[in-house]
Amino acid sequence: MDLPAIEELHFEDAPAVDSPPGPESRRLVRRQAEIESGAVLYPTDVPIAFENGKGATLKDVDGNLYLDFFAGIGVLNVGHANPYVTEAAVEQAERLPHTLDFPTRTRVELIETLDEIAPEGLRGRNRVNFGGPTGSDAVEATIKLAKRVTGNDGLIAFRGSFHGETSGAYSLTADTKYKRHYTPLLPEVEHARYPYPFRQDGSPEELVERALEDVQTLLGDRYGGMANPAGVWVEPIQGEGGTVVPPEGFLSGLRDLCDEYEVPLIVDEIQTGMGRTGEWWASEHYDVTPDIMPMAKALGSGFPLSGTMYDENLDAWGPGGHTGTFRGFNPAMRASIRAIEYTRHHDLLAHARELGAFIVDRLAECEAENPHVGEVRGKGLFVGLELVTDDGEPAPDLLETVRTTCYENGVLVWAGGRGDNVIRLLPPLVMTEAQAETGISILIDAIESATD
């Protein structure tokens, strides 16, 4: 199959809506609420039921068409139902869907392909593990591996972090809103400061210095409170914490500290990987090579798949050292190979950088004119817009109004941030500039109408 151009992937008339949510969406949302768990999140804020997706567009059950600016929270980097990906996944599903960890040509090809796009310091010298199908599973694997390699049990993460919601991953996650109901979690977990220039006093250099001092105290100070550190877990750009881009020197400083104290640096690329930020891995923006790197979300291009890549010198597991029933889901592996091929063929890394710069520039115009836009930040197509009140405090109510106005006009955006006040933009990397211009104009109009 030929690789279709990105312009050919979408519902061409999007956005086109008529007073959403429509009657069938309302019926299905109501029925879901009657029979499904109360943990359901997304329809409580965007009460829409979807039927089809193409590229960077979605169709709901009432026929409304939307521009998608969150792509399943960074899952669908090459778009919804990309035919080059789905063709191969369907063929694999019809032939051989599940093989545990027995070798298949698909499995070996994916591992070899991942090596080709690995961070430079891991290229040609890594091992890959497939466990459970979600990002939380991959993070759990990193915890086990770091403990196994070092023989220690102390975990260092950062304020504002999100690493998943299984018990170990939740222990690393900093958000107490939900996890306070499930303590105690893992012991010996400490959270250091993460440099957040918009919300912290001091120059970027000072913020980096303070954050690194926190980590150094935990790693090396006899009275720092952590006797046996096993590793440092960090998002190269915080996602759920509000698309917080750390200043230069932070990630490289962590690399130096981990080398000095001989503990692994675990860089969580679950949201930021597979080209999302304009490089295959966000750590590449900072010329930093992780020792251990969990991968998920866009890795399977819409099919459940997670993995962990790590330096071959850390391969301390023997047979059965880390397993998972669906570690041999071949359709997802085939989809991953095709998604990487599609990304390379269309140079979507460069496209993500260019389109992301376009989006940030357009939103910066709004920031310059509207005091309720506190900051626009991001790398590639990993963009955040922080909304604030008149006195600069987080404005979650404003965000809710803006998000509702956006979907009512055919644009889907999502939220994040420590104050639930950051609009997160994670569109598929196949979004066109014309689509971005239309969607961002609708977003800007929504902000302006909500703040007049």
TrEMBL record:
CDD domains, sorted: OAT_like
Pfam families named in the record: Aminotran_3 (PF00202)
Entry-linked InterPro entries: Aminotrans_3, Aminotrans_3_PPA_site, Class-III_PLP-dep_AT, PyrdxlP-dep_Trfase, PyrdxlP-dep_Trfase_major, PyrdxlP-dep_Trfase_small
Protein source organism: Saliphagus infecundisoli
Protein name: Aspartate aminotransferase family protein
Key words of the record: Aminotransferase, Pyridoxal phosphate, Transferase
Family affiliation: Belongs to the class-III pyridoxal-phosphate-dependent aminotransferase family.
Cofactors named for this entry: pyridoxal 5'-phosphate
The keyword Transferase is annotated on this UniProt entry: yes
Molecular-function annotations in GO: transaminase activity
Top-level taxon in the UniProt lineage: Archaea
